Amino acid sequence: MAGDTPDFESEMQKAGQLPPASARPRKVKVISCPRCGSSVTIRNPGASLSVVCDACKSLLDAQDANFRILDTCARATKNFQPLIPLGARAQLFGKLWECIGFCARRDGGYSWEEYLLFNPYYGYRWLVNLSGHWNFVRSIKDTPKLDYSGKTATLDGKKYSLFNRGNAVYDFVQGEFYWNVHVDESVSMEDFISPPYMLSSEKSGQDIVWSIGEYVEHSLVAKAFNLKSFRKPSGVGANQLTGSQREFASIKKSAMVLFGLLTLAQIVSFILCANKSVDVENFTFSPNKKGSVNSRVFKIEKDKANADLSFVAPVDNSWLWISGALVNNDTGLSFPFEKSIEYYHGHTDGEDWSEGSIREELGFSHVPAGNYYVSMDYESGSFKDTGDNAYRMTVSSDVPDSGNYFICLLLLSVFPVLYSFAVYGDNVKRWSESDFTPALYRQGES
Amino acid sequence: MSKFYIVYGAFILGWFVYLFVSGTRLCLPDAGAPDRPVGGAAVYHK
Q: Which one in A84, A293, A377, A424 has a CA-CA gap of 20 to 30 Å to A31?
């Protein structure tokens, strides 16, 4: 008994996906189960090697003229209810797919569901559901290159990290498959991840089959297959690209551009700064005495530029205190300051020590252009040279500054840093489900 | 978030330029705070 594939081509044509090939549509074949007599639909005759009778769970040889029974699947007594019914169709990754097979598998305490999808023009794909996390999987012919430890696989230049290694067993099968599937059949398997992708290998005897999966949001699968009840994913999927990861990836690019622009602006600001010394003077003072002194009048030419005052005094296990102001000689506008120049050193308990400096610096922002002088009161401690000493004052205008740059850099880094913490947290959750957790993501281990 | 970050980053860049043009230094070498009037500050040269 045979019939046309119900409007598969017309659905594809509607979506503009029908290739111009003159290939005839596949025929759906309906046979009678040789065991119970129920009707069994073969959606992809010719390609499917085995098909399961829905009524008696007998596994039939789809290529055999008499559809001989391969396995009774009597052990598969547990009732698995596929979320996606067989025969359901959906647009996924821009193509129409029909669900033709379902199997439930487990590895130790972990169990998952696999849905075999079929399109007569594009072949087979898998939808794999583990704890509400979905992957759209296709077989690949290329063999990924494994490193010496077997913990890294490389395919097309992308590196994948070993996430899981174990033995997968079929618990339940339904529908049809392009290989002879057997319940309780065990294959050794390995999963390597590079979110949102996962490379998987299944080894049975000497045969190794590689496949690559891409993480699919559960809402996308639910919408595509119009599913009402759907389990929400728990935790972080093995190859799930979390919201934080996506945000971090896009923010990272913007951050690099902004860091570059800020650095460029800083370089330009350094070039444009005049960094001009407008006054250098020496002032004499007597140790252990107070005094007052005014500098000569000097001109600050650039309006609203910054200004720096630096003092160098011959303090040696002594101090010089200066309190004063940068004063506009025309308007009286003053910028007050107070500075203590101290330098002490010695040798205690076999160790040399020192503290303070003979040089001190202070600065002012947006100083208006004009004629200025520095007015100072000073006081000093004891000096070795009990005669007159001198300190030097240098006034500079429009000085290059790095502080603004580093503060802006810090502000630009806030969001990337916060997101990198979130990404780290997601990775810790992700790898907590693995036996091959990289040291970076291990938690609570000594 | 990315759009917000770009706007935020543009604001920081603009602020950096403003700081430069206005001669503002956020990390000034500390000028201290005089605790008494400076004798010479009130004396104009002219």
A: A84
Q: Among partner residues B8, B23, B34, which is closest to A336 by beta-carbon distance? A: B34
For chain B, report the end-to-end CA distance as a whole number of angstroms. Answer: 59
CA–CA distance, A166 with A434 (Å, rounded to integer) = 11
What is the residue type of A316?
D
Which residue reads 């947290």 in tokens? A425
Amino acid residing at A201:
S
Chain A residue numbers touching B21 (CB-CB < 8 A): 304
Across the interface, whether the CB atoms of A363 and B25 are under 8 A apart is answered yes
- Whether A196 and A134 have beta carbons less than 8 Å apart is answered as no
Q: What's the rounded Cα separation, in Å, for the pair A412 and A258?
A: 8
Q: For the stretch A419-432, what's the b/e string if a residue is b when 16 or more beta carbons lie within 10 angstroms of its beta carbon? A: beebbeebbebbbe
> A361 with A308: CB under 8 angstroms?
yes
Whether residue A365 lies within 8 A of chain B, CB to CB, comes out as: yes
Q: Does residue A194 contact residue A154 with C-beta atoms inside 8 Å? A: no
**How confident is the model over B1-46, as pLDDT tens digits?**
688 999 999 999 999 999 998 888 887 766 665 554 444 444 444 4
Query: Scanning every residue of chain B, which has its alpha carbon at the shortest distance from the alpha carbon of A375?
Result: B40
In order of A7, A120, A177, A294, the CA distances from A116 in angstroms are 20, 13, 8, 91
pTM for the full model? 0.70
